[in-house]
Amino acid sequence: MMERWRPLRPWRPSRAIDEVEHYMDEVLAGWPLRTFRRVPAEEMLWSPPVDVYEKPDRFIVRVEAPGVKKEAIDVSMMGETINIKGHRKVSKDAKDEEYLRSEISYGSFSRSLTLPTAVDAEKIEATYEDGILEVTVPKAKEAKPAKIQIKTKGA
Q: Nearest CA to 89 among 111, 110, 74, 104?
């Protein structure tokens, strides 16, 4: 089989690296870069996943934060906005040069969520178990639905 002749180009390492990066971008299409190299903890940003759901008298906020110590989490409320901050420390088991793959995010995180109605900040409760932070935020009395009795006009 005959191959088409191509003029020789001088080999340049930077071009080869660019071609490999381009190929990897196409293959991985959006995978985080930290999958393939170790990023220092202070450079990493992460945001734990959050569920927020509503009951008739309260909101429930669930934050998935495995590996974060309870003491490293701070929950505060400003108006209708709940602020959750925390920090997950890097494991001291392995040194940077020993990592083959590093996908766990470390460092500080912060989430701010605005709830749709007024809340009773004095009665907020938070629990943390098995890596899940659950914050129960009672609605303010004026924000709770009130059942209105319908009367008939006398005949």
A: 104
Q: Is residue 133 part of a domain?
A: yes
Instruction: Using the Cα atoms of residue 92, residue 94, residue 96 and residue 101 in order, give the sign of their dihedral.
Output: negative
Q: What is the CATH number of the domain that holds 68?
A: 2.60.40.790
User: Measuring CA to CA, which residue among 66, 110, 62, 117 is closest to residue 89?
Assistant: 66
**Containing structural domain, residue 94:** 40-142
In a domain, 87, yes or no: yes
Q: Does some domain include residue 116?
A: yes
Q: Tell me whether residue 151 is in a domain.
A: no
- CA 13 from chain center: how many Å? 38
Q: d(Cα 108, Cα 116) in Å, to the nearest integer?
A: 27
What pLDDT does residue 34 have? 45
**DSSP SS3 for 11:** coil
Reported as a single tens digit per residue, the pLDDT across 75-120 is: 999 989 999 999 988 877 777 777 787 788 888 899 999 999 899 9
Count up the domains in the chain and report the number: 1
Contact 65, 129 (CB under 8 A): no
Question: Taking phi first (over 0 means left), then psi (-120 to 50 degrees means alpha), and beta for anything else, what does residue 118 get?
Answer: beta
